[in-house]
Amino acid sequence: MAIAIDAQHEIRWQEPVWVRVGYGSPEAVRGPNQAITYLTFRWPAARGDGFNDAMERCNLALRKEFKHDAAREAFIRVAQEADMMA
Question: Mean pLDDT throughout 27-48?
Fold first, then answer.
C-alpha cells in the first residue's frame, strides 16, 4: 500500500481506517500519528499484546523503521479486537 505525505510532512496512509469510539460517528484514522493518538487517548478496551504491537509498529513507522502498511494492518487488527471498526 502506498503512503502519502501531506503539506505538514505527516505520513498518511493511502486509505484511512474508519473507527467508532463508543456510540459516536465513524472517524477516519489517516496515519500512524493519528493511530497513536487514538491508542493513547481514545482506546476503550483493555491494553494487551495486540495494543502494544500496534503502538510499537506505529511508532516505528513514524521513525521510518517499519513499513507503514504493516503498522496500518496492526492498527486494524487491534481495532477489530476492540470492536471499534466502523
Answer: 91
Alpha-carbon distance 34 to 14, whole Å?
14
Q: How many CB atoms lie within 10 A of CB 11?
A: 19
Query: CA triplet 15, 19, 20: central angle to 5 degrees?
Result: 155
pLDDT of 9 reads: 58
In this prediction, residues 5-32 reach a mean pLDDT of 84
